[in-house]
Amino acid sequence: MLLNDFFYIRSLQNEADTLEVQLELNPAHHIFEGHFPGQPVVPGVCMVQMIKEILEQTLEKRVQLEQADYIKFLSVIDPRVNASLSAEISLQYTSNGVAVNAVLRKETVISLKLRGNFVFKQAVA
Prior knowledge:
Number of strands: 6
Low-confidence stretches: none
Strand order of the largest sheet: 1-2-4-5-6-3
Number of helices: 2
Shape: globular
Mean pLDDT: 95
Largest sheet: 6 strands, antiparallel
Structural class: alpha+beta
Order of helices and strands: EEHHEEEE
């Protein structure tokens, strides 16, 4: 889990199934010690995980990425320079989850574009 350690949600608006989220990265997080020493970069897998955790926070359900039509990493995120980010996520509910179009950006610079389907997970007993 990255939320409230690797990144923080500073604000979240949900209007007409579109999420507008302001995020703050933790540039001192231990992930950056290895990715990469002296030149920290947010790993692509962490960008996808951030979208997943934003969905879980908003929907109040556990989700799993079932299918990704595309995931494009368009620019690197240096947490020392780009600690404040925004996420824009549009949702379309399906019978077992939610179809998502998501963008992670710093102002006009897009770092991630993701289109995929997240399914609701059963709670662990």
